[in-house]
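Cross-check.
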Amino acid sequence: MIGGPYWGSSLHYRNCLTGPVMPSIMFGGLFAALDSFQYGQPFRPRVAGTYIGGLYAYNIIQCPMEAMHGKQSLLHNVLSGGILGYLGVSSGRVGIPFLDPTTIYRSNVRPELLAFAVYGGMAGAFAAFGGKRL
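Predicted model, tokenized:
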């Protein structure tokens, strides 16, 4: 195995699947509170659940990629963010940040693919700022 006996072991998967639980709950709740404050609406558990679930999914999607490659990589963050962005836009749950909607609909590129690029790019940038390498 490339990265040693840890990657892909039961200990790796246990840490990978349980490690992001509390951070996802804390930051998902914080994002939901900021969302309700920003739009002047009451705090909604469904919105909090969406944020918490999205953050948790973002983290656990990387587990099999780490096991296959034997290491953590910035590319895993890009793929994880891109996949969730694609699924979120295609299901109508999220929009595409930083892009003007008229530009999206005038282009010949499907919105889901633009979402993959934008969300994957954001995830990769945050991973790079956090010190992850390729």
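The radius of gyration is 16 Å. The chain has seven helices and no strands. Passed to J.P. for a second look.
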